[in-house]
Structures are given as C-alpha cells and as structure tokens.
Design goal:
By secondary structure, the chain is α/β, with parallel strands linked by helices. It has one domain (5-192): Ribonuclease E inhibitor RraA/RraA-like (Glucose Oxidase, domain 1, 3-Layer(bba) Sandwich), CATH 3.50.30.40. The chain has 7 helices and 13 strands. The strands form 3 sheets. Strands 1, 2, 3, 4, 5, 7, 9, 12 and 13 form a 9-stranded mixed sheet that branches. A two-stranded parallel sheet has the order 6-8. The chain has a two-stranded antiparallel sheet with strand order 10-11. Strand 12 and strand 13 form a beta hairpin. The longest helix is centred in the C-terminal third of the chain and has 24 residues, at 183-206. The protein starts with a strand and ends in a 12-residue tail after the last helix.
C-alpha cells in the first residue's frame, strides 16, 4: 500500500476499563481465545527489560521504508498510555528510532510501549529500560527524515493488521493485537481461559490428565502408529 501524507489526530478508542483488564492475562492465553491468529510474527521481539505487560490502545504509524519523519509526528500527537505501533514497509536496513526519541516518549509522553516492525538502535542502553520496546533487530544505520508517512491509519505490523485504537498486548512471548470492537467480548473469555490454563498446568505437572483424546484424534485423522523402528 502506498504511503501517503496524512496525520489523523482522532481515533476510536477502546474502553479504558477493558484495556486495563488485559494487564494480568498472558498474551498467549488471550491469543488462544482469538482463534490463534492475532499474534505478530516472532521477528517482532522484546528488546528491553520491562517488569510488567504492555497494554494500551494502538497509535499507528506508517513510514516510508527507513524514514522516521512520521514517527516524529507521533512524538507530537501521541497520548499517555498509548502503544505506538510502526509499519516500516518491511525495511531492515535502517533504524527508525533510538534512545533520544524514546527518552521523550517514556519521560514526557508516558507511553505504554512501542512496537517497531523494523530495526532500532542504542540497544546497549535500551535493553535495560522498563519501557516495553519491541523491534525486529538493531543497526547503527540511521533513518531518513523526509517522509512521506501517515499517522493513525490502518497498518500491518508483524504480518498482523492493526487499526488505530486496537488493544495491543505484549509480554515476553511477543505481541498480539486485539481488535477494538471485539475487546470487551474477548476479555471475559481470556480471563476464564487463563484460570483454566493455570489449573491445567498443575494437572499436567502431577500427571493427572486424560490424554485419550489424543489417541482418538490420531485415529480419526488417519495416523499410522507403527510398533517398529524407521527403515528407509
């Protein structure tokens, strides 16, 4: 999709209570309640050392590959608690943001986190930050500052569609996107799944689990179970 020159100042925002409700639920449990298709590609990975999950409404940025002028616009217009989500058009050659800009976002704008589908830099310092920072890689190579770029438009990040105001949830496993219009319905399901998952882990640890469904599923799907070694 071509990158335009549009900056939207308003978004449809999720219910703050719903956003807060996801803070104690692992991203994996929530993703399992969404047909397991909400997780960003593993190339988008945690680069810092937060002591909490990242949760907040998406403030989206679509940059020209390797250009961060639109990210500077995000510095101007993002709000406390936002998660800045950046689509870099798949570029892997230039860092889009480093310690200087992130210091402003952390200390002045009080964002909840940042997700970059592209490289960052200054990792020696950023890796120790409590601000959740996700990116694909690092490089000392800096960005252009010419544009074009867009703010608060639909983007793709980590192969997942992200709309402005969607709920972004990230932990040490990675990042998922919860569509804003579905978040209130998904939250109670994720809470229940998380509770069941804890109980399931205890049961598996104690060997108190019925795996007969595995045998039936293998049979139904036509697996051959051969009581012998493999011979070419």
């Amino acid at each position: 999709m071509p990158v335009g020159k549009r900056i939207y100042l308003k978004r449809q925002m999720p219910d703050p209570d719903v956003v807060a409700g996801f803070k104690e639920i692992p991203a994996s449990n929530t993703a399992d309640c969404m047909e397991r298709n909400s997780a960003m590609n593993p190339r988008v990975k945690l680069m810092s050392s937060p002591d909490h999950e990242m949760v907040g409404p998406a403030f989206t940025v679509h940059t020209r590959a390797g250009d961060n002028l639109a990210i500077y616009a995000a510095l101007r217009f993002c709000q406390p608690g936002d998660v800045i989500v950046i689509d870099d058009e798949g570029d892997t050659t230039r860092s889009l943001i480093g310690e200087v800009m992130m210091s402003y976002l952390r200390d002045q704008k009080k964002i909840a986190g940042i997700v970059v589908d592209g490289p960052i830099r200054d990792i020696d310092n950023l890796r120790n930050w409590k601000l959740p920072i996700y990116a694909t890689s690092t490089t000392p190579g800096g960005p252009y500052k010419d544009g074009p770029g867009e703010v608060n438009v639909p983007i793709a990040c980590g192969n997942i569609s992200v709309n402005p105001g969607d709920v972004i949830l990230g932990d040490t496993d990675g990042v998922i996107c919860i569509p804003r219009q579905d978040a209130a319905e998904i939250l109670p399901k994720a809470r229940a799944f998380h509770k069941q998952d804890d109980a399931k882990a205890i049961a598996f640890s104690k060997g108190e689990v019925d795996l007969s469904w595995v045998d039936k599923s293998l049979e139904d799907k036509g697996f051959d179970i051969i009581d012998d070694i493999y011979r070419p």
